[in-house]
Amino acid sequence: MILTELNSAIDASLAEHGHIRFTDEVFRTMDTIQVDAIRQKYGTRALLMLPEHEIVFMEWLKENDRPVWDDLWAAEPVPYLVSLAYLSDFSGKNIGGGYVICDLAVEDNYYFSPQLLLEKESDAFVDAVRDRFASRRSLTPAQLLALEASMGPVDVWHFAHRHDLAIDKVKDAVQVLVNDRILLHIPNADHLVQYFDVH
User: Model's pTM, two decimal places?
Assistant: First the structure.
């Protein structure tokens, strides 16, 4: 889809829904130049509906951790609308990307990234986990979470959903990693933002 077609589709979506909705196919084919152009043209006046796979996840979250879902969406007249700043998280090579939960106001955040791995303590641990993973040996939830956090941002809810684990089991894994001084857990969004930009 060329940019003029995207702009026409966006204008039609805004007229019909009051926000931007894209199909998975449109998300998949969008390149970085188109994402930047859309942000520039519509960024201050339009919101984006999450992709279908993220809506499925959010409905799972609603059933499995309602307080967190409420923290994210209960005050919103239409749930699942986000800033166009997140468009690149779902487009092109990031087609399966998620709306990582990192700025809860009431509930504790369980957001992790490479910056939250304690360098000296975690290096050997993560290297050993990578070796286990590469040799196709089983990993505990704590090992798998540390591995994912070493590769990029992850929250416990997406992690639990992706690996079909109970949220409490994943939170227990976080506690193991914190106790072993592998991972830093910062539950407060105001403190979390001091480490890096979380949108």
Answer: 0.90
